[in-house]
């Protein structure tokens, strides 16, 4: 139902919303003070929060680049995900061209 806190809960899990009380555990790890970049959690937003100046490939690779993943591994992971999602033909397009 609308307004019951689903999005807020997901944002707390991803580290995008402060947890004001209680504890957040993922498996056996307390996550309250873990930085978002260190949580190994990804979110796909309803409003397709893509960087308009980047291609689909660059948008998909962005978080991996921030985590300093080697370029060859980024390339492999992006292409593998694109194949699974059947979007390989769109990797060189920018969001406005989709």
Structural descriptors:
globular, mainly alpha, 2 strands, two-stranded antiparallel sheet, 36% helix, 98 residues, single chain, 3 helices
Query: Would you tell me the structural class of the helices and strands?
Result: mainly alpha
Strand order within the widest beta sheet: 1-2
Give the tally of β-strands: 2
Which residues sit in consecutive blocks of at least 5 with pLDDT less than 50? Answer: none
Outline the biggest β-sheet: 2 strands, antiparallel
Q: How much of the sequence is in beta strands?
A: under 5%
Q: DSSP helix count? A: 3
C-alpha Rg (nearest Å): 16 Å
Average pLDDT, all residues:
90
**Which percent bin holds the helix content?**
25-40%
Shape: globular
Order of helices and strands: HEEHH
Q: Give the distance, in angstroms, between the N- and C-terminal Cα atoms.
A: 31 Å
Integer count of domains: 2
Topology:
Elements: H1 6-14, E1 25-26, E2 29-30, H2 56-66, H3 71-85
Antiparallel strand pairs: 1-2
Quick structural gist:
The protein is mainly alpha-helical and 98 residues long.
Give structural notes.
This protein is mainly α. The chain folds into two domains: 1-43, no CATH class; 47-98, no CATH class. Helices cover 36% and strands 4% of the residues. The chain contains three helices and two strands; from the N terminus they run αββαα.
